[in-house]
């Protein structure tokens, strides 16, 4: 759907998990049709599981990480379902919000010929 000034509505998914779970999150995103993601390691915060410092201890697997991706709205449900299954056994959060992009083709997988 195109919005004001030619921008296209998409969904932004932000997932905060222990760094060791980033490969699982990455796989869920890519299997659901995401064309890319950004991972930020050493995320700090405070929540249900207490306070987390933002420094890396020994590697990026021993701290919190945030994985961010933008997908077409119809791709959100498979990602959220997979993340919920992960969060049933591990701490973390997932946020989904509407966003608007200027180059929607960057966020839509092309079908192979």
Description:
By secondary structure, the chain is α+β, with helices and mostly antiparallel strands. It has a single domain (8-56, 64-107), classed as 2-Layer Sandwich (Alpha-Beta Plaits), CATH 3.30.70. It is 19% helix and 36% strand. It has a 4-stranded antiparallel beta sheet with strand order 2-5-1-6, with helices on one face. The longest helix is centred in the last third of the chain and has 12 residues, at 76-87. It is elongated. The model has no long low-confidence stretch (mean pLDDT 84).
List keywords for this structure.
113 residues; alpha+beta; Alpha-Beta Plaits; four-stranded antiparallel sheet; two-stranded antiparallel sheet; 2 helices; 19% helix; 36% strand; elongated
């Amino acid at each position: 759907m195109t919005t004001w000034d030619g921008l296209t509505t998409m969904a932004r998914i932000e997932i905060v998990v222990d760094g060791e779970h980033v490969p699982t999150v990455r796989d869920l995103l890519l299997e659901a049709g995401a064309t890319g993601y950004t991972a930020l390691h050493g995320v700090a915060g405070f929540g249900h599981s207490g306070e987390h410092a933002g420094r890396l201890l020994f590697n990026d697997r021993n701290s919190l990480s945030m994985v961010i991706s933008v997908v077409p709205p119809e791709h959100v449900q498979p990602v959220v379902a997979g993340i919920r299954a992960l969060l049933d056994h591990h701490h973390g959060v997932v946020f989904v919000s509407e966003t608007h992009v200027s180059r929607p083709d960057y966020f839509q997988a092309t079908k192979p010929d």
